[in-house]
Amino acid sequence: MAIAKNKKPSTGKLALFEKLIATNPEIVLKGDADKYTSYHGNMYSILSADGVLAIRLPKDELEKFLKKYKTKLKEAYGIVQKEYAVVPDTLLENTSEAKKS
Description:
Layout: H1 11-21, E1 35-39, E2 42-47, E3 53-56, H2 59-68, E4 73-76, E5 79-86, H3 89-92, H4 95-100
Antiparallel strand pairs: 1-2, 2-3, 3-5, 4-5
C-alpha cells in the first residue's frame, strides 16, 4: 500500500500523540508527514502518516509490551521493524496509562 507523499496522520491521532508528548517537557515532537521523537539522533517513537503509532523498546521490554497490550511489531514498506511495537489506539487514548508504558 503506497502512502501519498503529503499525507499526514489524522488530526485526532496527532492531538493524542501531542498530548502524550506534552507530559514530558524534555521531549520534542519532530517531523512532517511522519511525526517522531528522538534522543541523540535515535528515533524512539513515530506516528506514521498512515496513523500508526509505534515505540522503540529494548528487547525484554518489547516482549512484555507486546503481551500486555496484545499488539504486534510495526511494519513499514513491507518490512517488520523488530524494535518497534505498535501502540494500540486504546492505549494512545489513555494518556495516563500510555505515559507509564
